[in-house]
């Protein structure tokens, strides 16, 4: 997959079959659109092109919106789109100036003059241009004027998939990582760098890698203990992930830490990726450290059973 950092970089592609949107999550619904894109490209000897934006448009239009959380970082999105079979990915900078482009100018100046589209595929109820004024009906009017074809994915097809980014976000906020994985088609991930913690886990036989995320807008699942796969330098290890404030030791800050089973390497400063499998239990305040240690032993055995299936 070729990646372009702006619309202006994109050129010399024969018969571009284009779709556009945020594609947060790259879930089953998004992949229905991408599959149709690929089918059309194959039918006319064209190439698939996906236009998306960074940062997420809502971050620019509503910078004070603290509730906005995303399923993917831009790097995760690139990886997922490449895996889905997109040939050309344009990640265009989204600015307030860009948001003011009218729907007709977006079609004429960007889709036609810059991208030179052959066909455009959009999801049901897709809007574009200033104040989201552009609709599928507008595209049907513009298409014959500017010499391209447009297709909308039927609502029935997307409804049959039963997936939306909103549903996935809701599942993650409830700690239901299994439902999120079912909708996404892959296990939800958190990626970041291992940083030093307070080392209390090491004193009770459960050393942990403390994860620092690189993106504050990335969704963190609900507090609790999870079974997870942990990727370190391309290798996956069984992991027991804890999200929360560790109430037994009166920790004040919410932390992300994972205990890697059968692993003893020093990985401070290294990048790791957590792939959530399921939630084992809620976070609990124990009466003393010994009871916490006993529960962690039970959790560890539970994780082993889950990940060995």
Structure description:
- This protein is α/β, with parallel strands linked by helices.
- Helices cover 35% and strands 25% of the residues.
- Helix 5 crosses helix 6 (136-146) and helix 8 (165-173) packs antiparallel against helix 9 (177-184).
- It has helices at residues 28-43, 57-61, 74-84, 96-99, 103-114, 136-146, 155-161, 165-173, 177-184, 200-203, 289-308, and strands at 2-4, 16-20, 47-54, 88-93, 119-122, 149-152, 189-195, 209-213, 224-232, 235-244, 255-260, 271-281.
- The model has no long low-confidence stretch (mean pLDDT 90).
- The two termini are 34 Å apart.
- It has a six-stranded parallel beta sheet, with helices on both faces. Strands 7-8-11-10-9-12 form a six-stranded antiparallel β-barrel.
- The protein is built from eleven helices and twelve strands.
